[in-house]
């Protein structure tokens, strides 16, 4: 089994042969929950692409590890960056979508308040819901042993999503009535790919028109209709394979 991953605020100055300290909530989880002890492998990451690989030199108290660093790695930016614009699902399906997309390898998630969303983020609820999505991405990034966690942006309106689509090198709306399959779409060799996943009630006609005007054509995933909480994960997996990131 690969070494567990824990998050630190910064890895500036980390070097092979040096040591790092893991404390606070992450240190408590490592010592008191995972029960890591001296000699066990561990990875510390800043979540922004850098990881320090090493072994536990000492476990102190209930929330502190000293890690002997053997290697420091920095991931290069992917040639094709995948962003999923996720309409707000009901209940905890939003966190489920973020979790599985993160585990699959998405680079960014943008919450979208579509007109047909039953759930709407307003005021204090918006702040709490966004915080949950970001915490989910962080925990799923650790679980899936990622060094670069996906960005979870602020919720956007339809107009703001259209602006994001217009800037992409390839943009698409996942739609069951799309004329072409996403599996055969012509993708860029580098740059940004932005996909829109609509709500359970579907993308409204005026929203679809706005997105098409911005350059995002409707594409279908396959013969079945996926839930909004799973469509982004399936599409991300398809694109990671097609762009060579899973090769």
TrEMBL record:
- Function text: Specifically methylates the N3 position of the uracil ring of uridine 1498 (m3U1498) in 16S rRNA. Acts on the fully assembled 30S ribosomal subunit.
Subcellular compartments: Cytoplasm
Tell me which Gene Ontology terms the entry assigns under biological process.
rRNA base methylation
| Name by which UniProt lists this protein | Ribosomal RNA small subunit methyltransferase E
Start and end residues of each Ribosomal RNA small subunit methyltransferase E methyltransferase domain: 78-239
User: In terms of one coarse class, where is the protein primarily found?
Assistant: cytoplasm
The record lists the catalysed reaction(s) as:
uridine(1498) in 16S rRNA + S-adenosyl-L-methionine = N(3)-methyluridine(1498) in 16S rRNA + S-adenosyl-L-homocysteine + H(+)
Name the EC number(s). 2.1.1.193
Q: Which UniProt keywords apply?
A: Cytoplasm, Methyltransferase, rRNA processing, S-adenosyl-L-methionine, Transferase
Which InterPro entries does the record associate with it?
Alpha/beta_knot_MTases (IPR029028), PUA-like_sf (IPR015947), RsmE (IPR006700), RsmE_MTase_dom (IPR046886), RsmE_PUA-like (IPR046887), tRNA_m1G_MTases_N (IPR029026)
User: Looking at the keywords, is Plastid present?
Assistant: no
In terms of superkingdom, the source organism counts as Bacteria
GO CC field: cytoplasm
- What family does this chain come from, according to its entry? Belongs to the RNA methyltransferase RsmE family.
Ranges for the Ribosomal RNA small subunit methyltransferase E PUA-like domain?
A: 22-68
State any single GO MF term: rRNA (uridine-N3-)-methyltransferase activity
